Write the structure tokens for this entry.
Amino acid sequence: MRSIASRISVMSGEGALSVFARAKQLEAQGRSIIHLELGEPDFHPGQSVIDAAAKALAEGKDRYCAVNGLPALKEEIASYLGRTRNIEVSPENVVVAPGCKLSLFQSMMALLEPGDEVLYPDPGFPGYASISLGLGAVPVPFTLSLKNRLQPDPDELAAMITPRTRMLLTNSPGNPTGTVYTDVVQRAMAELAVKHDLWVLSDEIYARIIYGGEYLSMLRYPGMHERTLIIDGFSKSFAMTGWRLGYTVAPPEVVPALNMMVVNTYTCVAEFAQYAAIEALRDREGNTPRMVAEFTRRREQFSNRLNQVSGFRCLPPEGAFYAWVEITGTGMSAENLCQILLEDAGVACIPGAAFGPEGRDFIRFSFASSMETLNEAVDRIQNVSAAWQGTAAAR
């Protein structure tokens, strides 16, 4: 009998999308649902970005184009990374893709062999482990714990490295925790990568969304240029989730392999969307700083209010737009709590185990919604909190 390839059975979905599907079912039944499960800014691209896409379409820029990205876009990406991250990147090292997930997938496919070990953060983006398994590699989680303020522990990492370790995955600011890795931690990770000759995949999709200080890319550390691939895109920093635009910055010897992935998958990214991306990077209207300023305001208010909910403990995130809430004080499992919040309060959020075993005592809220919506969400949570206050008191 014909069967599905075994690699599919070891891969996993995303908890956010599962919760979203159930929330949409409830909405179809007439329920009012506040969506705090998806990492999607409630902003839209500036008018200049829309106009650039419309102009490109009007000029017939809807054809096949350069395989790894328009030269003009790659030049703009290199300039943008120099301005915003103080790193020097050659346009020739940029490969444009239809979304960051595909950038991540093709980078891992180009570099990993079956049996290779991949160090990745737990809790972390579910795709890290899922893609590794699908490629026959072995995902090895390193812990982000509250006792270490959700920072990676370089000593733990060092102890995990074996002769089979091939890749170190970093994500700062991180999903779901909002952690921005410190200079000390990143420098130690870079030294380990050099010492053990590891590839480094630096997922920097939230790099522009930080709440203080200068962002430090992994590419800024000694020995990183020849081994680091940056994964970034337009969904978060430019509120362009549905445009499906991402890119990889790779060492020169990796670029041909990535180009081979492109030729055998998506051929090229939509030409008119790339012209819009150029305008987004230039950001003449200051859309990204304005959006981050609003996220800063929401971060303070939302985390403060969540800490007033019985049994909740929330450290204000250092980056991204997620509230990572410890819920052991409720006496309930994260799964049961999220079910109550969705079914009874109409607030959609995600149990932390969806991001790895270390997230089992947490839930994640996205605060990429209006302040009015966030305040209503907390009001609804407070209204159903009696369901766990008695449970916690009985412990």
Notes: The mean pLDDT is 95. The chain is about 40% helix and 15% strand.
